[in-house]
């Protein structure tokens, strides 16, 4: 990791982490009643759901969702880091709308593909891609996500991770930007 990747830790972030952790501890008894063997896992998901109320994990590939939840439970209880989901599964219509908007904005199909992929190429549509927050959480996932087959896949998107179990524990080659990936077939 280079110096430029160091993530500033503001007082506000530290306070919010502390509050969320207190919440999770308070939720432990209820989580224990619901799932005795998984209380810490469940309390963590509940607390993060309260911290990031807009997040929506529905539609993710079940294995990708499990990996994401397990990873952020680890980050939360062991290292005190929060990881929220900004965007997970997107349906093809939504992805198409985003891609079309980017084509309009940049005036170029090729330029648009460097930031947003068309639906047939998007990991979000397949339910294996997760955009996460905040930067500290993303940095944790970049360092430790491999244990859960979760990898940052693009240089220009610190927030974008994909569930890639097919690489057998080795990080996939990180691409400069979305449209550059050989993982997807070129359509230009
Ligand atoms: Zn993404």
UniProtKB/TrEMBL annotation:
Residues 60-163 form the D-alanyl-D-alanine carboxypeptidase-like core domain. It comes from the Bacteria. InterPro entries: VanY-like_core_dom, Zn_M74/Hedgehog-like. CDD domains: Peptidase_M15_like (cd14846). Gene3D superfamilies: 3.30.1380.10. Pfam families: VanY. Residues 169-188 are annotated as: Disordered. This is D-alanyl-D-alanine carboxypeptidase-like core domain-containing protein. The lineage of its organism: Bacteria, Bacillati, Actinomycetota, Actinomycetes, Pseudonocardiales.
């Amino acid at each position: 990791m280079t110096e430029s990747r160091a993530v500033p830790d503001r007082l506000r972030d530290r306070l919010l982490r502390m509050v969320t952790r207190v919440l999770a501890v308070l939720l432990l008894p209820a989580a224990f009643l619901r799932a005795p063997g998984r209380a810490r896992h469940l309390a963590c998901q509940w607390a993060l759901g309260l911290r990031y109320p807009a997040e929506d994990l529905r539609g993710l590939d079940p294995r990708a969702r499990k990996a994401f939840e397990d990873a952020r439970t680890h980050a939360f209880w062991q290292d005190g880091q929060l990881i929220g989901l900004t965007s997970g599964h997107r349906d093809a219509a939504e992805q198409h709308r985003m891609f079309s908007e980017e084509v309009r904005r940049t005036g170029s199909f090729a330029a648009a593909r460097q930031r947003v992929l068309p639906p047939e190429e998007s990991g979000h549509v397949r339910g294996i891609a997760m955009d996460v927050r905040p930067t500290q959480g993303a940095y944790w996932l970049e360092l430790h996500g491999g244990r859960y087959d979760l990898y940052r896949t693009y240089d220009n998107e610190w927030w974008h991770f994909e569930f890639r179990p097919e690489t057998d524990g080795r990080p996939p080659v990180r691409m400069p930007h979305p449209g550059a990936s050989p993982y997807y077939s070129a359509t230009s």
